[in-house]
């Protein structure tokens, strides 16, 4: 990377604020190129951060951050923010193990006022900060929440707007309108915002209104009243859609060009002087300034991995051997295959059709597959409504995002015992996205829900068969199937369907020294461990439990009657997970064996590759080997002591 005229001298926003307005476009050029250079080599989120370069520069230029509280929504757009707030030199470690986080993180910087990763939290958090400042009599402190138009579809955003509108709190909501989440936005709000941006009559008058609002002093003591009347009259007669915000008692301004940094900064400077709740509608382009992103598939360029920055060519693995598919793709293709045979099957996802591979069904059967927007709660209850009419909804939500709809799972699905099939992608550690995206808790939080069947496949074929089983008429309960991010283990995965008896596991390997009980993908770690142990003279039995609820009591009775050394392995939280279920069974049935539980410990797990995090959490192949060796060593020491006593 070459030398920069301004960026190399900006360590913190205070340095940025020393510059002149006319210097800001060059700062944006340098900041955008810095992001392109680093992400092309290291990977990470791309389009979102490029799209808000001008907005980021303008916000830090006008507002006195960190004293003024800037809250980002869905932090994949915050790379520019991080670079301008003391982390430029460390940015090459972004999303790497022990490096800086890919999302705003309060532990990392005082400029990161709120930890984010899930969408739609900024307005509520910003309102809380604004009310706290008012209570503490910090009346000069400003509060800015930057939210994307996709994030506006979530209920939490509307809850925050509803509360903020009557709070009289000094909060500015910046609506970053780029028509995209990861996939294109959907819904009535999207259409309303589009109408607002293309209304020719309104756009003819908006510049004049801005000039009026910016120079109200010329009108004397009644200037504010005159400006407000003109503004409201134009909005009411020409752009009734804006009343969505006006009716919530937000003053609406815009739309403005989110890539004209000088004008944007001046608009923000004007808004800084206006008290109370207000919203600025900015128009941006995701991936702005990088032609291959702007002109290409914006979903792909959301997080493209590494690429040649000069040609836009994605850098792919050099391994030419056939690779196992991603679990999500197995889900997507299998769902279409099942739906072709069962016309009651429907597909639902909250704004993640590409990430979950529901886009395969959306293309093949558009009338039976639904992207409902960033609205996990709605996705679950919508699915419940479908189920009441005899349809079989496959509701695909990332494990971490399912947490947002937990009440709906209990209240709307489980209590009514409705047949909704929950396919939870990204179960377990999710890699470099870090703690906001890890799916650590679903085995535990679903296991305690009445009527719920809780399962996890060890490989792609098991995933297909669990999906096949879940849609059979004989299965009447809500049914969850969770699987990890990334690739499976079987190349030739598209095998004929086979029913799996609900609540029944399988013995993979006999043994007599130690029993290893696994759930889900980590069963493959145990497979490798058993082979190594066999070469060391340790004969380990291996059971793939398949179900956490109902758990296979026949297998557990067999294990506890034949083994006094047991290891459980799971890629979920140890508290309340599969290992806990085994301990509960042991206590209830008065068995007395030594049980070593391997899984995710009771702490926040930061970011890194999945392999790095398996090792950190203590359930990798090496950790299974260590646990088995330790248990059998103790057994051998006891036998030696008995031999010498005799």
Q: Which consecutive residue ranges, at least 5 long each, have pLDDT under 50?
A: 200-207, 233-242, 638-646
Q: Which range best describes the helical content: under 10%, 10-25%, 25-40%, 40-55%, 55-70% or over 70%?
A: 40-55%
Strand order of the largest sheet: 7-6-8-9-11-10-15
Distance between the termini: 75 Å
**Class based on secondary structure composition and strand pairing:** alpha/beta
**How many helices in DSSP terms?**
26
Please compute the radius of gyration using only Cα atoms. Answer: 28 Å
**Global shape:** globular
How many β-strand stretches? 17
Give the integer mean of the pLDDT values.
88
The major β-sheet equals:
7 strands, mixed
Q: Estimate the strand proportion.
A: 5-15%
Structure in a nutshell:
This protein is an alpha/beta fold and 646 residues long. The protein is built from 26 helices and 17 strands.
């Amino acid at each position: 990377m070459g030398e920069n005229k301004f960026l190399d001298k900006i360590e913190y926003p205070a340095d940025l604020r020393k510059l002149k307005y006319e210097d800001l476009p060059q700062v944006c050029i340098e900041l955008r190129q810095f992001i392109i250079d680093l992400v092309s080599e290291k990977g990470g989120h791309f389009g979102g951060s490029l799209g808000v370069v001008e907005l980021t520069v303008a916000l830090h230029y006008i507002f006195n951050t960190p004293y003024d509280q800037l809250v980002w929504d869905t932090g994949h757009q915050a790379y520019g923010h991080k670079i301008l707030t003391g982390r430029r030199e460390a940015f090459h470690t972004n999303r790497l193990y022990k490096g800086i986080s890919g999302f705003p993180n309060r532990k990392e910087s005082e400029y990161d006022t709120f930890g984010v990763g899930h969408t739609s939290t900024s307005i509520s958090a910003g309102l809380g900060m604004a009310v706290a400042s008012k209570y503490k009599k910090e009346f000069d402190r400003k509060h800015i929440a930057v939210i994307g138009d996709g994030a506006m579809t979530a209920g939490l955003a509307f809850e925050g707007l509803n509360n903020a509108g009557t709070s009289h709190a000094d909060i500015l909501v910046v609506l970053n309108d780029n028509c995209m989440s990861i996939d294109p936005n959907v819904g009535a709000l999207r259409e309303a915002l589009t109408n607002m941006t293309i209304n020719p009559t309104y756009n003819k008058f908006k510049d004049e209104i801005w000039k009026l609002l910016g120079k109200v002093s010329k009108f004397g003591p009644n200037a504010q009243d005159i400006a407000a009347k003109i503004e409201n009259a134009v909005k009411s007669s020409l752009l009734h859609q804006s009343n969505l915000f006006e009716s919530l008692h937000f003053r609406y301004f815009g739309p403005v060009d989110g890539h004209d940094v000088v004008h944007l900064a001046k608009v923000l400077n004007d808004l800084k002087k206006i008290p109370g709740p207000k919203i600025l509608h900015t128009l941006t382009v995701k991936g702005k300034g990088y032609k291959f992103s702007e002109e290409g598939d914006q979903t792909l360029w959301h997080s493209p991995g590494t690429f040649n920055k000069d040609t836009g060519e994605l850098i792919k693995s050099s391994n030419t051997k056939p690779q196992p598919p991603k679990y999500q793709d197995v889900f997507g293709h299998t769902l279409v295959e099942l739906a072709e045979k069962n016309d009651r099957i429907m597909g639902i996802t909250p704004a993640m059709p590409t990430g979950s591979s529901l886009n395969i069904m959306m293309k093949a059967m558009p009338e039976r597959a639904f992207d409902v927007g960033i609205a996990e709660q709605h996705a679950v209850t919508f699915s419940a409504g479908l189920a009441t009419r005899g349809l079989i909804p496959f509701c695909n939500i990332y494990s971490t995002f399912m947490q947002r709809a937990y009440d709906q799972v209990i209240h709307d699905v489980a209590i009514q015992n409705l047949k909704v099939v929950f396919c939870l992608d990204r179960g377990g550690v999710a890699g470099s996205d870090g703690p906001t995206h890890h799916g650590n808790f679903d085995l535990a939080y679903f296991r305690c829900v009445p009527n719920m069947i809780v399962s996890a496949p060890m490989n792609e074929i098991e995933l297909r068969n669990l999906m096949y089983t879940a849609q059979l008429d004989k299965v009447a309960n809500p049914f969850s199937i969770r699987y990890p991010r990334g690739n499976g283990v079987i190349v030739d995965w598209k095998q004929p369907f086979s029913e799996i008896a609900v609540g029944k596991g399988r013995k993979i390997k006999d043994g007599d020294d130690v029993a290893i009980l696994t759930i889900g993908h980590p069963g493959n770690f145990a497979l490798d461990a058993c082979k190594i142990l066999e070469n060391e003279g340790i004969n380990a039995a291996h059971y793939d439990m398949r179900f956490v609820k109902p758990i296979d009591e026949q297998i557990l009775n067999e294990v506890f009657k034949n083994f006094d050394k047991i290891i459980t392995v799971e890629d979920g939280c140890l508290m309340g997970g599969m290992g806990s279920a085994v301990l509960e069974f042991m206590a209830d049935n008065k068995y007395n064996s030594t049980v070593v539980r391997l899984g995710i410990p009771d702490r926040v797990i930061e970011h890194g590759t999945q392999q790095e995090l398996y090792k950190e959490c203590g359930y990798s192949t090496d950790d299974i080997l260590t646990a088995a060796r330790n248990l059998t060593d103790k057994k051998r020491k006891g036998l030696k002591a008995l031999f010498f006593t005799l």
